[in-house]
Amino acid sequence: MASHKLPPLPALRDFVHIYRLTARKILSQNYLMDMNITRKLVRSAGIEPGAYVVEIGPGPGGITRAILEQSIRRCDVIELDKRFMPALEPLVEASENRLFVHHGDALKFDIEPIWMDAKVPKHDWLDEPPNMHLIGNLPFDIASPLIIKYLREMSRRRGPWAFGRVPLTLTFQLEVAKRICGKISTLDRARISLVSQYVAEPKFLFEIPGRSFTPKPDVAVGVVKFVPRFEPLVQVVQKVVRHLFMYKNKEIHKCIKTMYPDDMADDLTHELLSYARVDPNKTSHNVGIEELADMSACYDKQCRRFPGLFLYYFEDKQPLEFLKNKPNAVPRVYGFTMPELNKEGISIKEFDTKWIPTER
Question: pTM score, two decimals?
Answer without folding.
Answer: 0.69
